[in-house]
Write a structure and sequence with these properties.
2 domains; endonuclease activity; hydrolase; three-stranded parallel beta sheet; five-stranded mixed beta sheet; 42% helix; ATP-dependent endonuclease, OLD family protein; alpha/beta; nuclease
């Protein structure tokens, strides 16, 4: 297997300057050695030079021309016989097969925006990208060179393709967010063979803390590693969770009451790809609160802030699915990976049947409460252990509990210093909603429903009561 596969590990902290030095153990040194062996040493004048040097050196060190070895053996024999009378030392020169010719030396320089400098004088982001490049090239070159030497491919048969397994710790280190996105795309293109110039087959493994390197569209590729406490052990252990798309499809099938086989892993995959990138943050959270849109997120986070609840400090991510129709898949993905989820949606009772989407309301309720034996779609406001829903919408609930006129007045007061219009769009701004609900509380009005949701969500996701 090692003849055709090379494993390269890129640690989180690796000195690019060391890899760039022209030494035998460095990556550049190994690359140059391969280059010399496959190219430079194939030149006839170099082979002739090596042959001439070898013959002359063999002549110089032949036993006839160097009697010193025999003299040394006699001296050692004399001293040894002081200890063992019948002992003797014999020494013969080893035959010199080939005179070693030193390889050319090289200095490596990186250029960025026209500025060239030694590797250790460039930025850490460029240095790390250089490490990925050089180790990847080294691994491929090593395997290809080994194939050339060790294996002769019969006529008519295809030569084996070099396999590379590239394992990277925290590829996001020293990279700007836009560069992280680009690097993630490059790694994926490298692994699926669509990167121009990437002829060899490559498998990519990486451990990351960045949502730019993971997505719901590739949820089945993720292995979620967490430290968990176990009984009769003083230390936490590492627990690995993975997702089966077929299992996720079966759960969705049951929630939507579809015939077995209606949903499959293959049909689920494209429905995951359309979900927003923000949801990837949920992979790294200790708990997730799923809401329909940005206004729901702003109102919930504002209420928590007023109550002195810090979701971020507890590792809780409040994520917008950008629509009620998009809540079911993230819920299943996160829960299958062991991430606790609290889901909130609007039943839209103030809309007509088509726009209210009662089938979606019922499917979400079944997902969150599979043992509830629910027959009809929920229509009332309810705050449950792991999910909540509003009869109409969160915005209408705020109007009812704070007062429509008062809420508009407080929203206007919050928007005025920012020179913003007091409308539905500005309710999506977290600071505006915080100021709006803070003014309402100062005037003795608040949303009991939102307060209850914050408390229930905190208890469900952290196991602690407020």
């Amino acid at each position: 297997m090692q003849r055709h596969t090379s494993f390269v590990f890129v640690s989180a902290v690796r000195d690019a300057a060391v890899d760039a030095t022209d030494g035998k153990s460095s990556a550049v040194g190994q690359l140059l050695e391969l280059l010399v062996r496959s190219a430079i040493q194939q030149r006839q004048e170099i082979q002739a030079f090596k042959q001439e040097m070898t013959e002359r050196y063999q002549e110089l060190v032949s036993p006839e021309n160097m009697p010193e070895l025999g003299v040394l053996a006699e001296n050692l024999t004399r001293d040894l016989r002081n200890l063992y009378e019948d002992a003797a030392v014999g020494m013969d020169w080893r035959a010199v097969d080939e005179f070693p010719v030193p390889l050319p030396m090289a200095d490596v320089e990186l250029s960025d925006d026209g500025f060239g400098a030694p590797v250790d004088r460039q930025g850490h982001g460029l240095q790390r990208a250089f490490i990925f490049t050089i180790l990847q090239h080294l691994a491929r070159s090593t395997v290809l060179a080994g194939n050339e030497v060790e294996e002769q491919v019969p006529d008519g048969e295809q030569a084996p393709v070099a396999q590379l397994i590239l394992a990277i710790e925290e590829p996001e280190l020293y990279q700007h967010p836009t560069k992280q996105r680009h690097l993630a795309e490059v790694l994926r293109s490298l692994s699926n063979g669509t990167l121009p110039g990437a002829d060899a087959q490559t498998q990519i493994l990486f451990a990351t803390h960045s949502p730019f390197f993971v997505s719901l569209g590739h949820a089945d590729e993720i292995r979620l590693a967490r430290k968990i406490a176990v009984e009769e052990c003083d230390f936490k252990i590492c627990d690995l969770q993975s997702l089966s798309l077929d299992t996720a499809a079966t759960r969705l099938e049951a929630a939507w009451q579809k015939e077995p086989g209606t949903f499959t892993g293959a049909t689920l995959m494209p429905r995951l790809h359309i979900l927003g990138a923000e949801l990837s943050e949920g992979y790294f959270a200790q708990g997730v609160i799923l809401v329909e849109g940005r206004s729901d997120k702003a109102a919930l986070e504002a209420t928590a802030r007023i109550l002195g609840v810090n979701f971020a400090s507890a590792g809780i991510a409040v994520l917008s699915a950008e629509g009620k129709e998009n809540l079911d898949r993230p819920y299943v993905v996160f829960s299958e990976l062991g991430v606790p989820v609290y889901t909130i949606w609007d039943c839209d009772g103030h809309k007509n049947a088509n726009n209210a989407r009662p089938a979606t309301n019922l499917a979400l309720a079944r997902l969150c409460n599979p043992a509830g034996n629910l027959e009809g779609a929920p229509t009332e406001t309810a705050v449950n252990l792991n999910y909540a829903h509003f009869q109409d919408s969160l915005e209408r609930t705020l109007q009812e509990e704070i007062g429509e006129a008062d809420l508009q007045q407080h929203l206007q007061a919050a928007c005025e210093p920012l020179e913003l219009p007091a409308n539905g769009e500005t309710q999506k701004i977290p600071e505006v909603m915080f100021q709006t609900l803070s003014l309402a509380r100062e005037n003795g009005r608040e949303s009991a429903t939102l307060n209850s949701i914050v408390q229930r969500a905190w208890t469900h996701l952290t196991g602690q009561n407020l």
